[in-house]
Amino acid sequence: MSYAGKTVLITGAARGIGAETAKRLHAGGAKVALVGLEPERLEALAAELGADRAAWWEADVTDVDQLQAAVDGAVERFGGLDVAIANAGVHYVGAFATSPLAQIERELEINLLGVVRTDKVVVPHLIASKGYLLNIASLAAVSHAPLMSAYAASKAGVEAFTNVLRQELSVEGVDVGTAYFGFIDTDMVRDAFSSESTKILEKAMPKFVRTSVHVSEAVDAIEKAVLKRKDRTWAPRYVGGAIASRGVLQPVAEKRVTAGKKSLKRAIDSATAEVAAKQESAKTAS
Question: Taking the chain, what is the end-to-end CA distance rounded to the nearest angstrom?
């Protein structure tokens, strides 16, 4: 199979996995609709790829009207939509008890409801083309670590939501996939690992898990999913084993982390201090 000549819409396309996926699929002959924030980055990427098969739209996944306008623009520009990749997401490190509710809600709003909104506006066009939808989840949908309550909940929600869509849309000839990624070397992951609280907790992770891999591994997985219209794809390789063994993995991971209660408490206290400092910095800036 080939995606050459197909129109692919990608949210969160300004940087990281979204931007690199756009480059890869464009190189394979796809027309790419770049959707996200950071208009200067989107414009530069579209210019780099070339105006004949690349265009961009600024849209926030928390605003369904902006998403609808972007999808309508892409369909008008390229004549339809064959593949959609709901990739936009954020991650804030913080303990649930001490993180601001607004921070927790925003993470859920972007990571889970942002996917729901994106899918809602692209699905009619994918039904028309009998296309393919790929929602980006995470290893966090399977393994739930401290300081990631909203992130884990949002990604588990993406997984469950996608499982339902896969069944419902099968009758329309639309294939639906979920992507599960471990630590990929992106700005979001680097920011998380720069946190002192994360540095404390990462000692409880096996080295192969806490070692970030190049973004090309995630792009390889996405490209294979698009080509084969796969139900599930993942990177790095060990994530597949984690998905298969999730019934055992979570209890074992929890025991490993909670066995070192002093380290866990230090990580939580550190995360609490970091969140408070960011809040104070935001107040000062405003």
Answer: 52
Task: Convert the pLDDT of each residue in 129-153 to its tens digit.
Answer: 999 999 999 999 999 999 999 999 9
Mention the CATH class of domain 7-195+206-245. Answer: alpha beta
- Burial category of 168 from C-beta neighbours within 10 Å (exposed 0-12, middle 13-18, buried 19 and up): exposed
Q: Would you please indicate which residues are annotated as catalytic (active-site) residues?
A: 151
**Domain range list for the chain:** 7-195+206-245
Averaged pLDDT of the chain? 94
SS3 percent helix, strand, coil of the chain, rounded to 5, is: 60, 15, 25
Q: What percent of the chain has pLDDT over 90?
A: 77
Region at 171 (left for phi over 0; alpha for psi -120 to 50; beta for the rest): alpha
Task: Name the DSSP class of 139.
Answer: G
User: Is residue 242 pLDDT above 90, yes or no?
Assistant: yes
